[in-house]
């Protein structure tokens, strides 16, 4: 049993697990904690933005603090609009740290559509149905994404947060919130409210062993376990529509 497996058995939530790993192994790379397998990542290449546990923890706390400053309350929903890949991971953990329910809406490059073109009509309808309190996005897709959502009923006054503009130094402003096993954590796109994934479900299965690396695998549309039997968040997400949401753009 690895130290990560041992710690995941003791942790109650992914937030607790990442905080523990950031304290005990701050320099360990998140995406190589289980042997450096990069097969879960798009194109099979290790991205330049790979983080250590310490860096991911800081980024998550900084984003969570930004959500709190924006007035987003625990239990409210945030849409994560990014191209598929690891850019989603700090945003996802930022939501988890703030007790905010994340709905990843990956902007995939499929059917000749560039991720930079923003969300498709299908994804826009999923975002509207989510009724988010805020939308998180990256600089590269911000303009197209905002244009696609402009005038959509229920989204007119929803604020946006560009996570790349959030300074890691603001992590100190994070206020820890009460998070337990039954706290809602994630809403896969294209499914109803009854499919909300709790913190216990994220941690209780093999998802916890993937940590950020597994999140990148699931959010990039990969199914099932990681290569070599290493698990990813795919196993924590409901099948069918959830995977369709990951691949539509």
TrEMBL record:
Residues 220-249 are annotated as: Disordered. The chain crosses the membrane at residues 79-102, 122-144. Keywords: Membrane, Transmembrane, Transmembrane helix. Residues 50-106 form the AMP-dependent synthetase/ligase domain. Pfam families: AMP-binding. One of its GO terms (biological process) is fatty acid biosynthetic process. It comes from the Bacteria. One of its GO terms (cellular component) is plasma membrane. SUPFAM superfamilies: Acetyl-CoA synthetase-like. One of its GO terms (molecular function) is adenylyltransferase activity. Belongs to the ATP-dependent AMP-binding enzyme family. This is AMP-dependent synthetase/ligase domain-containing protein.
